[in-house]
Structures are given as structure tokens and as C-alpha cells.
Design a protein that fits this description.
The structure holds two protein chains of two kinds.
Chain A lengths: L2 E5 L2 E3 L5 E8 L8 E6 L5 E7 L6 E3 L7 E6 L4 E6 L8 E8 L8 E4 L3 E5 L2
Parallel strand pairs in A: 2-11
Antiparallel strand pairs in A: 1-3, 3-8, 4-5, 4-9, 5-6, 7-8, 9-10, 9-11
Chain B lengths: L3 E4 L2 E4 L4 E8 L7 E6 L6 E5 L3 E2 L7 E6 L2 E7 L8 E6 L6 E2 L3 E5 L1
Parallel strand pairs in B: 2-11
Antiparallel strand pairs in B: 1-3, 3-8, 4-5, 4-9, 5-6, 7-8, 9-10, 9-11
């Protein structure tokens, strides 16, 4: 069965960097776009970033461009999110999500369990 | 960016009730709309994609309709396991955007 397992979360000081990783299994990873979606405590869902199946297309939420970088390694079935210049408002549960389509931008058919990132001094 | 306005933000209902949630897009998104259910402490789950298509394994009491800028999501005969928060999400253009959510709780 499809599994997405996030790792790398934790507490980080404002201005610092943190990298999240998502290990995928149970499907042909290289054929689907992957996303990161976040949810601040008690708030709604916010789309963060997408990477297409072959990494030819990447896009980000408006408030994240220039600070976050998404990447993938199809040989290791992993997708990563490098976060820099972190702000307190980046505190959230970060979900890795699989797209139903190859290029991204359809619907999220599988999600990880989420991982908490807390930005605090 | 496409803004998604979802209403109501919360509602109270009883088991067996018919529940309707609306989502309005700030511009024409055709039928590029999905609906998700999220329970506390859990990841969201897709229920409806393409405005009206039922995702695999989702009970038929869930339905969606609409196109352009106005969409509705309906639960016909609310069940105890349906008490949750529901989100719409557009995929017509990046950045992908979600509605603010509708929390459905027990009356």
C-alpha cells in the first residue's frame, strides 16, 4: 500500500534553516508529482510546493518563493523541502502529499502523517 | 492567485441531516475543484475531485457540483463518522489554494 513518511521536523530558531524529507513506497514514485502542504496550529491548509515527476517543473506558494526549495530523488523515492530564513509564522504541521497526476496540480490522493516544525527562539 | 471563499466556517448538524457547504472562486476555475475531509490529528482525505467525481472508496452520500466560480458539497444523511472539517481546493492554476474550511460538529 502507498506510504509517505515525513522526517526532519523539530524546533528551530527564527532565521535558521531546516530540511524535511518524505520517503515514499507502494507506488511507482517516478511517475507522479509530489507536494508539500502545511497547516499552522488550529488553522486551515496551505499549499507549499510541487515538484513534477521528472523534476522539470517546480512551483511554490507566494509567501515561500526564495526561502523554500523542493527537490526529489527518484532513485531513492524521496522528496525533500529545504526551508531557509525560517519565521515564526512557518510553524506548522508539514504534510507530504502525492498527486494523482504526473505533472502536478490535480488532487492529492495520498498524504503522509505530517511532521511538526516549530520556529521559536 | 485564485481566492477560495468557503461558507459557512462552521455548522452544527444531527445524524441523518443533509449538509451543504459552498465554495466560491475569485475567478472562473471551470470544474477544477476538489473537496477534502480532515479529522482532528489526521491528514486530509480526498472525497470529491473534478467538482463532482467521487474518489475511490468514498460513500455515495457525499456529492459535489458546480462549475465556473460557484461550487457546492453535500452530505446526504450525515453519519457519526462525518463530523470533521471539510476543505475545498482549486487546481485550475498555481499556486493551488484552499478554502478556509468548514467544521461540521454535532448539534
Amino acid at each position: 500500500q502507498v506510504q509517505l513518511v515525513e522526517s526532519g521536523g523539530g524546533v528551530v530558531q527564527p532565521g535558521k534553516s531546516l530540511s524535511l524529507s518524505c520517503a515514499a513506497s507502494g507506488f511507482t514514485f517516478s511517475r507522479f508529482a509530489m507536494h508539500w502542504v502545511r497547516q499552522a496550529p488550529g488553522k486551515g491548509l496551505e499549499w507549499v510546493a510541487v515538484v513534477s515527476d521528472d523534476e522539470s517543473y517546480k512551483d511554490y506558494g507566494d509567501s515561500l518563493k526564495g526561502r523554500f526549495t523542493i527537490s526529489r530523488d527518484n532513485s531513492k523515492n524521496t522528496v525533500s523541502l529545504q526551508m531557509t530564513s525560517l519565521r515564526t509564522e512557518d510553524t506548522a504541521v508539514y504534510y507530504c502529499a502525492k498527486d494523482f497526476a504526473r505533472t502536478g496540480g490535480y488532487f492529492f490522493d495520498y498524504w503522509g502523517q505530517g511532521i511538526l516544525v516549530t520556529v521559536s527562539s | 492567485d485564485v481566492q477560495m471563499t468557503q461558507s459557512p466556517s462552521s455548522l452544527s448538524a444531527s445524524v441523518g441531516d443533509r449538509v451543504t457547504v459552498t465554495c466560491q472562486a475569485s475567478q472562473d476555475i471551470f470544474d477544477s475543484l476538489n473537496w477534502y475531509q480532515q479529522k482532528p490529528g489526521k491528514a486530509p482525505k480526498v472525497l470529491i475531485y473534478g467538482a463532482s467525481s467521487l474518489a475511490t472508496g468514498v460513500p455515495s452520500r457525499f456529492s459535489g457540483r458546480g462549475s465556473g466560480t460557484d461550487f457546492t458539497f453535500t452530505i446526504s444523511g450525515l453519519q457519526p463518522e462525518d463530523f470533521a472539517t471539510y476543505y475545498c481546493q482549486q487546481y485550475d492554476s498555481f499556486p493551488l489554494t484552499f478554502g478556509g474550511g468548514t467544521k461540521v460538529d454535532i448539534k
